[in-house]
Amino acid sequence: MEINRKKAIFIWVAVILILLVGSNIFTYFAAGYLTGSNDEDPTKVIKFEPAKNDYDEDTEILFETMDAITNNYYTPIDQDVLIEGAVHGMIESLEDPQVQYYDSKALDAFLLDTRGSYGGIGVRIIEVGDDVVVFETFANTPAERQGLTPGDQIIEADGLDLSGKGIDFVVELLRGPANTSVDIVIKRPGADEPIALTVEREDIRVTSVSSEMLEEGLGYIKISSFDSHTAEEFTSQFKTIEQSGLSRGLILDVRDNPGGLVDQAVEIAKLLVPEGEIVRLVGRNEDVKTIYYSSAVKKPYPIVVLINEESASSAELLAGALQDRGAAFLVGKTTFGKASVQQLVYLSDDQAILLTMARYFTPSGRDIHQHGIEPDFEVDMPEILRYYRYFLPGQLERGHYGPDVEMLQMMLEQTGYTIDVTGYFDEQTTRVLTDFQTAAGIKRSGVFDDQTWIQLREALDIAAREQDDQLNFALDLILKPGLWNITEEND
């Protein structure tokens, strides 16, 4: 019975992928996980139930191979391993990096990430070698209240040593139901001894939208991703700054936004894109599955959208619609170029496949997949100001050399110091680093240690805003006399 059940699961997976790759009878379901329309649940998924005679007789070779290995291979092989291997092989044959297979555990994590909320302590962590380090602490969360800060290394959780265990293992320990707690031990930069903390878990809602008034009449909104709360957050903040008076214009920042839920981008577009088409989804055989429209009135102020090489998917959808409809100028670098749309297809035993079901085209009919969207005004951004927050090399001192030393030199240069970027930690680097430590009010060692990393990161946080050439260009552009007349002519 167990073998038959596993074979049945394998048949289901094989049938779905063979139909998707090799036939024309599979129809596109518009009510999908990532393509849900305004009136549909964005977590809705396809439950595909093919008839038994839907698959080709040639698929029998799959089962013959599995039986041959199971019965004859010199080492006993678990059929679960063979089935999962075959599934991964079929997915790899599609040569589509967006197609993913999820077992039940991975599926839960995937759905959790897209909901924009979870039970946890409120930190974003990254892996540095064998260590897990706090990259960001979210505001008004247990982690912030307990004083966790970027740079803290989490070395234990609930009595378990975390060194070399991997980020997924640590995430699983830190997350959990609200009103429970986790005991952690951290190694803090500059502290002599580890620090033990008990942190209560809460329902953490990750904010994907932030906004502010840069000047009177000039608003700024940043969208970091598109999860199930993004449109709601954007609508609320957009209305607030509109009520504050957007007489001079709006800057919309989708740089480093990897995308997410298409329906959320569409809802935001309905607020900004003038009446008409926003985007169209096209399936196999170039048939148009869905066209999304806006009924909004064109805004009485100019809009500038900031984009870069990491703006992808739903971020490109929104930027492309605004550009095509003459509603905004785009400033920055050509975007990533990901215009495929995926849906979640459930399989047996709470497993699923994220499958590419369609491509989207901008209102003018542009296919931006693997091409990206070119900005109206191309403006570079120093790479060091984009990636400095990921710089966690440990201790560096005189005599060291390599990419980490080169990046340190670039960071010092970006904060205003004169230094040769050579990749060698030489006498000049020691002297400049000592000057920085003196200015920061910390120990003058000439060694790049944890305390120096914290101070340098804070200095670069300021530099990243002050020296944001793309944002500064957008500010100059949006305040340029006659800009709105130009956008009206484009429209």
Q: Could you write a compact summary of the structure shown?
A:
By secondary structure, the protein is of the alpha+beta class.
Can you characterise this structure?
- α1 runs parallel beside α3, α7 runs parallel beside α8 and α8 packs parallel to α9.
- The chain has four domains: 95 residues, no CATH class; 88 residues, Pdz3 Domain (Roll), CATH 2.30.42; 167 residues, 2-enoyl-CoA Hydratase, Chain A, domain 1; 84 residues, PGBD-like superfamily/PGBD (Muramoyl-pentapeptide Carboxypeptidase, domain 1).
- By secondary structure, it is of the alpha+beta class.
- The strands form four sheets. Strands 1, 2, 14, 15, 18 and 19 form a six-stranded mixed β-sheet that branches. Strands 4, 5, 6, 7, 8 and 9 form a six-stranded antiparallel β-sheet that branches. Strands 11-12-13-16-17-20 form a six-stranded mixed β-sheet, sandwiched between helices.
- 36% of the residues lie in helices and 22% in strands.
- β6 and β7 form a beta hairpin.
- It is globular.
- It is built from 15 helices and 20 strands.
